[in-house]
Amino acid sequence: MKLETQRSFHPLRLGGDTLEKTSLEVMEAVLWAHSISRSSLLGRMGCSKSKLGSVVAELLDAGLLEEVGLTSSSGGRKAEMLCINPHLGVLLAVDLGATHLSMALLNPNLEVLCHHHEALDVRLGPSAGMARIKAVLKLLLAQQGLSRLSILA
């Protein structure tokens, strides 16, 4: 398996490897489902059960996915649920309006970890806006005990 990263300092240190198409599709399906069983994933993927099993095993081994518990049983064996590893890093969301600045850090499962909102007049210019974004980013990262290297996107 190959993992594509945009920055060489990615916390998993997986280098310049590239995820193959099926692995990317699995990651995307798990992301939008938030958590999903292998059987539900198989229904969405259109690949063989053995191919999906192999890809999921590689993603689990790489620390990109994690198993998060069992589903309720519908008569058969309970299915193990998969989700994106929430400890991969954080995503930064910025909303800069004409009169405000809102920022949030999210985990890779799109759950808000912390949020900040303040009044900000864009007529002050781009350098004032960027200075506030940088300052609030430092604040949000400090609140979570994280560094800039934790930011995935």
Protein traits:
3-stranded antiparallel beta sheet; disordered N terminus; 153 residues; single chain; alpha+beta
Give me the secondary-structure topology.
Layout: H1 21-33, E1 36-37, H2 38-45, H3 49-61, E2 65-70, E3 80-84, E4 91-96, E5 100-106, E6 112-119, H4 126-144
What features would you describe in this structure?
The chain contains 4 helices and 6 strands. It has 153 residues and is of the alpha+beta class. Strands 1-3-2 form a 3-stranded antiparallel beta sheet. A hairpin with a 3-residue loop joins strand 4 and strand 5. Helix 2 packs across helix 3.
Largest sheet: 3 strands, antiparallel
Number of helices: 4
Residues in β-strands, percent: 15-25%
| DSSP summary, beta strand count | 6
Task: Tell me the radius of gyration.
Answer: 19 Å
Q: Which range best describes the helical content: under 10%, 10-25%, 25-40%, 40-55%, 55-70% or over 70%?
A: 25-40%
Unreliable residue stretches: 1-16
What's the short version?
The chain has helices at 21-33, 38-45, 49-61, 126-144; strands at 36-37, 65-70, 80-84, 91-96, 100-106, 112-119. The chain is α+β, with helices and mostly antiparallel strands and 153 residues long.
